């Protein structure tokens, strides 16, 4: 497993590599396939991830990278305002293409299960397929969990990949909702990690 020293806050110069890493990591992801058009899908996916890193995570949240930007985590924080997403809504809609209805109904369905109070939200995390299983994913998530602990607020995430649920449970998350998304019935899990007040995070 990589050491914590391999993880650092992202910089603007990291954005292109971060977007490429997330594109490779999510190339066959069931959720992004559900909400982003199949036409020119990988280009759309990379632009979608680049927007999230460059326009949301870096200026209004936190982004951590590990290795040679082979792993990326993008978080919003209790201070991240909803107006940021509203400003980018039209661009995300363009990238969704003919999956726009799926994208919009998925967002509505997921919003019903999100925490109402302050939260650190793990919006996206991905590891280059060549490095998956090496511990980079856990390493790049850890700073956000530590930040949530310091703030005394929950960490939250959503996943539509069943195999990810056990991984996040090992990091202290618990499932708060399991539900189908409209227009296809894709199962999604909402997961929360409540602050432990000084407990040691998993290594």
From TrEMBL:
Q: What class of enzyme is it?
A: transferase
Q: Which InterPro entries match?
A: Acyl_CoA_acyltransferase, GNAT_dom, Trichothecene_AcTrans
EC number, as in UniProt: 2.3.-.-
Instruction: State the superkingdom.
Output: Bacteria
N-acetyltransferase domain spans which residues? 56-196
Q: Which UniProt keywords apply?
A: Acyltransferase, Transferase
Instruction: Spell out the Pfam families in the cross-references.
Output: Acetyltransf_1
UniProt-recorded name of the protein: GNAT family N-acetyltransferase
Q: Which GO terms describe its molecular function?
A: acyltransferase activity
